[in-house]
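This section describes the prediction task in plain terms. A model, or a person checking by hand, is given the sequence of a single protein chain and must write out its three-dimensional structure as a string of tokens. No templates, partner chains or ligands are provided. The sample shown here is typical of the held-out split.
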Amino acid sequence: MSEDSCLFCSIVSGATKAAVVYEDADYLVFLDHRPLFHGHCLVIPRQHCETLSDLQQHSVGPFFERVQIISRAVESAMEAEGTFVAMNNRVSQSVPHLHVHVVPRKKGDGLKGFFWPRTKYPGVDEMIAVKDRIAKEL
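The expected answer:
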């Protein structure tokens, strides 16, 4: 996807309207137009990149500092008991522009099912083999 056809780049440029919560030279935060709960925000870098892997390494810390700031603000503003912070990379990523969801949470709010079905490793050997494959890539 090019920047020209990216919905979030269109929001960054001002061509598409959004309820902007926060902005600075490098990052933009706006309300999700289809929120899980009121106060559900999206944190994005202004510069187009599709996934976390594509974000320049020196930008990772500042990006997540914004996520942390927004998480605190959403929790306080929405009188929430916590927040759900999530990111998809390609699979289930509705807009191919890096974004983190910050969703206010309260006990018993009905939000569930994001991380299931869960599975078990058949045994310790299989778990170690997976661990070793990931560690090798590092």
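For orientation: Helices lie at 7-13, 57-77, 124-137.
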